[in-house]
Amino acid sequence: MPDIGIIGAGTAGLHLALLLQQAGVRTRIYTNQTADQIASGPPQNSVSHHAPTIARENAMGVNFWPVDEYGYQVHYHHLNVPDGPPVFRGDFLRPSRVLDYRIYLPRLMAEYEERGGTIEQRSVEPADFDQLARVHDLIVVAAGKRSFAEYFGERPDVSPYAKPQRHLAVGFWDGVAQTEPRSVTMSISPGHGELLDLPITTFDGWASALLCENVPGGDLEVLMTQKQSEDPEAYRKLTLEKLKEHHPTVHERIDESRFALMRPGDILQGAVRPVVREDYRLLGDGTVVLALGDAHATVDPVTGQGANSASFEAQVAADAIIEDGVVDERFAQKVALRRRERVDGLSTWVNTMIETPTPPHLQKLIGAMAQMRTLCDEFTENFSYPHRNGDLVATPERVDAAIARHAEIGQDPTEVKAH
């Protein structure tokens, strides 16, 4: 079996390392942060792990946070327009889970090392690849550093945006009552942005990860541009004010006297440009350098798919390595082919969701979801299979076909549940 060098200790790198470790394949992870540095640092993300990712964790023996205790199985949706529909619901077939990555990543790093793996703390750049190729048969780049993005280059056919389409702010907040049943809430304020309220397990117990996806130039953009660290109390009040105006169904669950970040600094502010990059490159000696996870595809978090996509890609790469035992260009082509439908489909879904103004066919779909519980359930379940939502929203004709299909199923008005 080949020897694999993995750059990055996020979901993609750790899942690949653990999968290969189970199969007896030699690996080494290179990362510029220790587990302690990750645990004591700022939040990493607010991503959900959906059922296929959790099943993979079970198979790897690293599902230390069972969904019956830490999970949720419902999405609530709200469209904040005058005389708009009431809150409408969609259900997963199997639960999902949100966990503070400052807990998750160090735990998986420890497990990999306890099973005999090696994590080397060092900063790696593309200039180091030739040296690493003298040690490893395959180099897997599973970190989202800018120099790696430039090394692989973009695929313009699935990277339509020259700049971020949302300005982001995500904080882990106390004082937000959980829904019953526990759920993720997506609130949409047309022209201004989206809010995802996610039930996250942190160091100090349950919190609400409030992910504000703000349209540049809209009324909510200030949640990214006004830096929380400069005046935390002013930012807290600003957040309450904007939630009340734009996302009232979340605001109504807030106890303003308790509303505060779980810990000082429990917030991220910034922006992400969604982009899909080339799958691999070859070094002069023929060694494959494979892009994985964030190095391969960077997605806006509005659909909560980054870690799930990374885990899926890790499984595809691990399967091909184990099947072939040879990590040449043919191997890299197989990995590219096997993951493309899911990666490109996810890209279509994300790029449609963040298009401004909102495409008419997406507006039509959301309106139909408010009236058709089975359609909303399908859209929700597709968070576990994101390329299916990519298919669904790809064209107006596909949205019409989905609505017609669910209309044939027939809708009992009592099934369209409010919050």
Return residue spans where pLDDT drops below 50 for at least 5 consecutive residues: 412-419
The biggest beta sheet reads: 9 strands, mixed
Query: How many helices in DSSP terms?
Result: 16
Beta strand %: 15-25%
The oligomeric status of these chains comes to single chain
- What average pLDDT do the residues reach? 96
Strand segment tally: 17
Keywords: Ligase
InterPro entries: FAD/NAD-bd_sf, StyA_sbd
Protein name: Alanine-phosphoribitol ligase
Domain Styrene monooxygenase StyA putative substrate binding: 144-253
What does this structure look like?
- This protein has 16 helices and 17 strands.
- The chain is of the alpha/beta class.
- The strands form three sheets. Strands 3, 4, 5, 8, 9, 10, 11, 12 and 13 form a nine-stranded mixed sheet that branches.
- Strand 15 and strand 16 form a beta hairpin.
- Helix 13 packs parallel to helix 16.
- The longest helix is centred in the last third of the chain and has 25 residues.
- The radius of gyration is 21 Å and the shape is globular.
- It starts with a strand and ends in a 10-residue tail after the last helix.
- The C terminus is likely disordered.
What's the quick description here?
The chain has 419 residues and is α/β, with parallel strands linked by helices. Helices cover 40% and strands 22% of the residues.
Name the descriptors.
419 residues; alpha/beta; nine-stranded mixed beta sheet; six-stranded mixed beta sheet; globular; ligase activity; ligase
